[in-house]
Amino acid sequence: MADQGTATNRTNDQDGTQSASAAPKTRGDARIVVIGNQKGGSGKSTTTMHVIAALMATGARVASIDLDARQGTLSRYIENRHSYMTRTGTELPMPTHRAIEPSTVASIDVARAHDAHAVEKAVTDLSTRHDYIVIDTPGTDNFLSRVGHSYSDTLITPLNDSFVDLDVLATIDPETYAMVRPSKYAEMVFQVKMQKARRDKSNRTFEWIVMRNRTGQLDSRNQRAMDDALGKLSGRIGYRLVAGFSERVIFRELFLDGLTLLDLRNPGTDIKMNMSHLAARQEVRDLMAAIGLDKAEAIGA
Ligand SMILES: Nc1ncnc2c1ncn2[C@@H]1O[C@H](COP(=O)(O)OP(=O)(O)OP(=O)(O)O)[C@@H](O)[C@H]1O
Ligand SMILES: [Mg+2]
Q1: What is the CATH number of the domain that holds 231?
Q2: What are residue 118's phi and psi, to 5 degrees?
Q3: Span 256-297, pLDDT tens digits
Q4: Which of 197, 155, 141, 139 is nearest to 34 (CA)?
Q5: Structural domain span for residue 35
Q6: Is there a domain that residue 280 lies in?
Q7: Counting atoms of ligand 1 from 1, which one is nearest the CA of 139?
Q8: 31-35/132-136 β-pairing
Q9: How far is residue 72 CA from its own chain's centroid?
Q10: Does residue 257 sit within a domain?
Q11: C-alpha triplet 4, 144, 257: angle, nearest 5°
Q12: CA 46 – ligand 1 centroid, Å
């Protein structure tokens, strides 16, 4: 059995140091953006990195937290960015990054207390020195992810353009697209919203935004049906639907260099922008404007 007295969450700072949980302090004013969807591969980490880069491009001080540290896609993305800068001598804005792994303590109650404390401590520490904290979460339901969700001022759920993925929000009638029942994820979002309202007495908002990802660039019957179904659901389960990203190879290609579409205009990043890249960058800007995180005119050249 694990030693409950000494086991803690591993909280890895960007410089590789590890810190155990400490007593909570008062939260600062950083706005917290959580990217979540319990379905794997919906584009959470890709969206997270683009939101981070778009916020940094406005001059905002940005921190990031990887709550999917075992998979570690966001952490790897940021490491790749660091390596790219070293390799090419390019200066790029970097977030203050932390990765938090779920507690390994055997007792569920103790493990949950550790998870809650680890997130609270990271949020409290980072809040005082940053304008935004952007949190990536795993594509599965675990307690650490729930805690992360409960800190959302803005929750962004990327959703692949398929009825298989829509099932993560609700079961719908196949003919009318009316909701039959909300999904476990939608119920979880409702619960964490209540939890946040109880915890933050300061009337901080909790806005849930669903964005479509990997949409086809041609109008299709599936796309129109998804529009219809997502429009009907939004009022029932309380999210705002915004346009997201099309299916574009560039979103996959940038990972290895740790770059985003917002970085390509930087001197030193030698990827030549074509029409598809420009359109993709515009989609990122539009997303930021739609969710009110823009200072839109400052994003991109
Ligand atoms: N708009 C897009 N166009 C093309 N490829 C995309 C797009 N968005 C994401 N991808 C690709 O889809 C895959 C899954 O994306 P990503 O890792 O961001 O999803 P995720 O939700 O974080 O996954 P997980 O649940 O495993 O953490 C990756 O290969 C990524 O490059
Ligand atoms: Mg991911």
Answers
A1: 3.40.50.300
A2: -60, -40
A3: 999 999 998 766 676 778 899 999 999 999 999 999 987 644
A4: 155
A5: 11-294
A6: yes
A7: 25
A8: parallel
A9: 13
A10: yes
A11: 115
A12: 6
- Structure tokens given for 253: 């290609």
| pLDDT tens-digit map of 145-163 | 999 999 999 999 999 989 9
Q: Is the pLDDT of residue 139 over 90?
A: yes
Ligand (nearest to CA of 215): 1
Q: What is the pLDDT of residues 48-86, one digit of tens each?
A: 999 999 999 999 999 999 999 999 999 999 999 999 999
- Say yes or no: CB of residue 40 within 6 Å of ligand 1: yes
E runs forming strands in the chain: 11-13, 31-35, 62-66, 96-100, 132-136, 154-160, 170-172, 179-182, 207-215, 240-246
CA–CA gap between residue 180 and residue 186 (Å, rounded): 13
Spell out which residues have Cβ within 5 A of ligand 2, the ion. 44-45, 73
Domains identified in the chain, total number:
1
Kindly report the number of other CB atoms within 10 A of residue 52's CB atom. 30
pLDDT at 1: 33
**Separation of CA 44 from chain center:** 5
DSSP 254: T
